[in-house]
Structure formats: C-alpha cells, structure tokens
C-alpha cells in the first residue's frame, strides 16, 4: 500500500511540473541522511520537486545519523542546527528524518507525498507578502526585494543558498549499505546575505562563480516563515 501511495504522489508531482513559472516559489526543505533507511522515498520526491518551476526544493543532509555506520558525505552540522531551530520555534523537542519544512512554518514527514502536495498548493495560492526580482550581469546577480502592503514591518534575514542540482552516493555501510542513490538539489551552503527592514525596497548583490545553483530566501529571523524566495539561475 505504501508503495502504491508513493507512486500516486510521484505521478501528481510530475504532472504539477507543468504549472506556469511562479516568481515566488514555495520553498520545501528536506532534512535527510544517507544513514536513514526511511529516507529514499523522500529523496525520490525531492527529485520530482526539483523539476517544478513553482517549487524551490532544497535537500539539507544532516549529520546525526553518521554514528550508525556511514558518514553522509553531504551532511553539514549547520543543517542539523537549522532543523533544530525549526523544532525549537515550533515548540518541539525532537527532530527526525525524513522531514520536509514548507515555507519555514509547516512540516510533514518527508515521504507523505499527498500531504506534501496539499501544503504546497495551499502556500502557492496565497498572496505573496514580498517579491524578489533579479538582474544578472556576468557572474553577478542584483537581487531586488519589494514588500507588499500586507507584509508586517520588522527585520528579515536575506539568505543565499548554493546547491548542486544532482549528487550521487554509493553507500558502503550502515542501514542503506549496497545502495547507489541520487540526490537532487543538495545544499552546499546557506548563508546570511544581509538584513532587510521590510519597509523600503532593498538591493543585494550575489556573486556566482562555481557552477552551483543559487536561490535567495527572505525569512523571519529565529527560523520563522519564509516570506519570499527566488531561484537566481
């Protein structure tokens, strides 16, 4: 039954890839690990999300399963810290994999494709609180952020994400020993680009030079909601 439901979810996700490009994609962060036997179905969903224009799917590999026999080569302590931050902000004491966080304020078990689709649709249909526009010149991109009248005034963090469209792993030990797996939109770094007051229009510059994909997130500090996002390349 689980396999059938996953197949249905993948079909729906694939069909949704034809949706017209959205300048403010729904951000879906997947917290996953090569040491987690429950994660491959969620990793497969991420591959489908990566094909969509109206979704920004990001795979953040965490390091807290490394001790059971296989060190995830794409895991970073900062990803674990970010997931812990979301848990704390939501009043939760535990973190787990696979987990998907949607626009920074809702979460779902990563392999529950139909529930994920419903949340994505809800967020996609909401009126954007801000917009991110980009202008590219050589290796530099100018990022312009404009608030809507409904955006609460206050401080927002502008973050730049660098990620690889596809990575591969041949896992030799641990719960997934013997598996060769592909991972889509693997996050390499997520750093604060600057602060924005949510009132005046703001401009930032991002330098692109290493072949990785880039996105910008505008987020309430303290692991709050993501109010705007954009894929830069």
Main-sheet strand order equals: 2-1-3-4
Helix content: 10-25%
Question: How big is the Rg?
Answer: 17 Å
Q: How would you classify the helix and strand content by structural class?
A: alpha+beta
Topology of this structure?
Elements: H1 2-16, E1 26-32, H2 40-49, E2 55-61, H3 77-89, E3 99-102, E4 106-109, H4 113-124, E5 130-137, E6 140-147, E7 156-170, E8 180-196, E9 202-207, E10 213-219, E11 226-231
Parallel strand pairs: 1-2
Antiparallel strand pairs: 1-3, 3-4, 5-6, 6-9, 7-8, 7-10, 10-11
Describe the protein in words:
This protein has 233 residues and is of the alpha+beta class. The chain contains 4 helices and 11 strands. It has helices at 2-16, 40-49, 77-89, 113-124; strands at 26-32, 55-61, 99-102, 106-109, 130-137, 140-147, 156-170, 180-196, 202-207, 213-219, 226-231. The protein has a 4-stranded mixed sheet with strand order 2-1-3-4, with helices on both faces. A 4-stranded antiparallel sheet has the order 8-7-10-11, covered by helices on one side.
């Amino acid at each position: 039954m689980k396999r059938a439901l996953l197949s249905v979810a993948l079909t729906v996700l694939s069909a949704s890839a034809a949706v017209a490009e959205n300048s403010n994609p729904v951000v879906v962060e997947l917290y996953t690990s090569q040491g987690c036997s429950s994660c491959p179905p969620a990793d497969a969903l991420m591959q489908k999300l990566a094909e969509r224009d109206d979704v920004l799917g990001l795979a953040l590999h965490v390091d807290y399963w490394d001790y059971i026999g296989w060190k995830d080569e794409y895991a970073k302590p900062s990803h674990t810290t970010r997931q812990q931050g979301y848990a704390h902000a939501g009043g939760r004491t535990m973190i787990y994999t696979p987990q998907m966080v949607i626009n920074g304020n809702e979460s779902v078990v990563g392999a529950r494709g139909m529930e994920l689709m419903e949340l994505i649709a809800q967020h996609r249909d909401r009126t954007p609180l801000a917009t991110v526009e980009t202008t590219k010149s050589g290796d530099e991109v100018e990022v312009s952020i404009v608030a809507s009248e409904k955006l609460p005034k206050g401080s927002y963090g502008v973050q730049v994400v660098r990620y690889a469209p596809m990575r591969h792993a041949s896992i030799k030990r641990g719960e997934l020993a013997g598996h060769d797996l592909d991972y889509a939109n693997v996050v390499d770094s997520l750093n604060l680009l600057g602060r924005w007051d949510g009132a005046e229009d703001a401009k930032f510059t991002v330098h692109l030079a290493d072949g990785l994909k880039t996105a910008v997130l505008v987020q309430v500090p303290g692991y709050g909601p993501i109010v705007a996002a954009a894929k830069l390349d």
